Amino acid sequence: MDLGIAGRTAFVAASSQGLGLACAxxxxxxxxxxxxxxxxxxxxxxxxxxxxxxxGGAKVTWIAADLTTAEERAAIVAARPxxxxxxxxxxxxxxxxxxxWDEAALVGALRANMVPAVQLIRAWLPGMxxxxxxxxxxxxxAMVKSPAYEMGLSTSARAALTAISKAISTDVARDNVTxxxxxxxxxxxxxxxxxxxxxxxxxGIGHDEAFARIASTIAAGRLGRPEEFGDACAFLCxxxxxxxxxQNLQLDGGSxxxxx
Length: 260
Known about the structure:
This protein has 2 domains: 9-185 and 225-251, NAD(P)-binding Rossmann-like Domain (Rossmann fold); 188-223, no CATH class. 46% of the residues lie in helices and 14% in strands. The longest helix is centred in the middle third of the chain and has 21 residues, at 152-172. It has helices at 18-29, 41-54, 70-79, 103-113, 115-131, 152-172, 190-203, 207-216, 226-236; strands at 9-12, 33-38, 60-64, 85-88, 134-139, 177-184, 248-251. The chain starts with 8 loop residues before the first strand and ends in a 9-residue tail after the last strand. With 260 residues, the chain is of the alpha/beta class. It has a 7-stranded parallel β-sheet with strand order 3-2-1-4-5-6-7, sandwiched between helices.
C-alpha cells in the first residue's frame, strides 16, 4: 500500500535507537524526509548512515538535542521550522515505588514524558493546520491503560500526555491534523534489554530465562518486532489515516484484557 506521504517531512524524537528508530525507518521507506533526534551525536550519525544504506535515496538528517530543555527544543524548531509529521518519544523514568516518588521525581517525569511532546506539538501545530495536513503520533506505553505499580511514575506522566493529546485532537481534526498514541508492550528493544537485565539481577537468572519470562506475559507468546511497531506508526501518519484521531493503539500481542 502506498501511504501517500512520500515527500513529507518528519521529526522523530529520541530516535537513535529502539522504538523511535523503528518509526523513523518505516517513514523513510515511505519516502518521508526524516530528522532523527537524540543526545548522542555518534549514535545519531550511525543511525542515519544505517537508514541511508538500507533505503536508496533516503533523506535523513539529525539534530542532537536534549528534549527536556526549553533552549534545545527551541533550537530544534529553529532548525526545522515546519514539519508535516511529528513522532514524540523519550526514555521513561526508572521503575520504583511510592517511596521514590517525591516532588522532584514527579516533576522530572513530566519534564521528560509530557512537557517536551506538548511543546513540540505547540510549535509545529499552526503550520500543520495552515497546510491542511499533520500527523502527530506519541509513543507512550500500554501501562497508560494497565498501570503496573513499579512503573507508576512513567505511567502517570504518559497518561497526562494522553489526556492533553485527546483534548487537542478534537480541535484540529477539521484541518486534517490527527493526534494518536501508540501503546507498546514488550517490543524487542533496548528498553526490554534493560528490563531483562533488571530481572536477571533481582532473580539470579540468565539472559535467555529472563527473556522467556518476559515473553510469557504476552498472549502471543513472543516479543513484538520493532518493524511491526514502526509500520503501525507509519500507517497512522498516512494519508489514509485522516479519519483516525484521538486514539490509543495498543501493540501488545493481544494481551490487554479490557474491552476499551
